[in-house]
Design goal:
270 residues; 11 helices; single chain; 7-stranded mixed β-sheet; globular
Length: 270
């Protein structure tokens, strides 16, 4: 264990997670309820305790915490050392701690620590969700995805990697030129996103059900906190097979009202 002392509560909360030595774990977490449980017991809680417990449990392993930005704002410079993520308190702690490496994708960067940190931190592909992206390496490395108290619908961005690899018809490429800081200087970096076409709505809950029924997703809870652990290699196989057979119709549908919303949103972004 590290010299960070864990309270009994966090050790108890995380002890039932299916963690193994040498694992690579992508973590998406909302720590609000876990922090509240600590407050009720008058115990100190910091995001560092959550991440460090997991990393210590899988040594020699690797953890990845999303540092996503998601929204493109023209003229705003991406600096992996300073750009604040929108993915919660754990991500913001990872940035401020300076204990993690971060890859240079201006949309979907990750904070990485552990045995394979150099591998993931060096990744920079021409498409944020495409071949040779961090999502591709997570698949190749047979990583796991831990969702702690977060909504599968909004957190399972790995599905977009599978969609791009399968070249689904309801998405298309959009190219962005984004100023980024590299070696102390600002340069223009071109990157593609495989974006959803107007009118299409995704519901990933049927996908989660499919993953659970086929052993690719394990679920549990602690007090009022819930968690899921997804085997990304298995998830890729199941989702790609489903797309090949059904074209994504099990979790994607076209909606005319959604089309109107998307078109209006597109007009305001011009």
């Amino acid at each position: 264990m590290s010299d960070l002392s864990y309270h009994r509560l966090i050790a108890e909360a995380l002890s039932h997670l299916p963690l193994q030595k040498g694992d690579t774990i992508w973590i998406a977490a909302d720590l609000t309820r876990l922090a509240a449980l600590h407050a009720e017991k008058k115990q100190r809680f910091q995001p560092a305790m959550f991440a460090t417990y997991i990393l210590d449990s899988i040594q020699p392993g690797t953890i990845l915490i999303p540092g996503f930005v998601n929204t493109y704002v023209p003229g705003v410079v991406f600096d992996k050392q300073h750009t604040m993520p929108v993915t919660g308190a754990l991500s913001k702690w990872a940035l401020k701690s300076q204990l993690f490496k971060r890859n240079a994708d201006p949309f979907h960067s990750f904070f990485i620590k552990g045995e394979k940190a150099d591998l993931y931190a060096s990744v920079l592909s021409e498409s944020s969700f495409g071949k040779d992206s961090v999502f591709d390496v997570l698949y190749q490395e047979k990583a796991k995805f831990l969702l702690w108290d977060v909504d599968f619908q909004y957190a399972f961005t790995f599905a977009h990697f599978v969609e791009e690899m399968m070249q689904v018809s309801y998405r298309h490429y959009k190219v962005y030129d984004i100023p980024v800081i590299q070696n102390g200087s600002s340069i223009q970096q071109q990157i593609k996103l495989y974006e959803k076409k107007p009118g299409y709505k995704l519901s990933l809950f049927p996908l989660k059900k499919m993953l659970s029924e086929n052993g690719a997703c394990r679920e549990g809870s602690y007090k009022n906190c819930s968690w899921s652990m997804v085997d990304l290699h298995q998830a890729y196989q199941l989702l790609s097979d489903d797309i090949q057979k059904h074209g994504g119709k099990n979790f994607v549908n076209f909606d005319s009202f959604q089309w109107c919303k998307d078109r209006i949103k597109g007009l305001f972004s011009l």
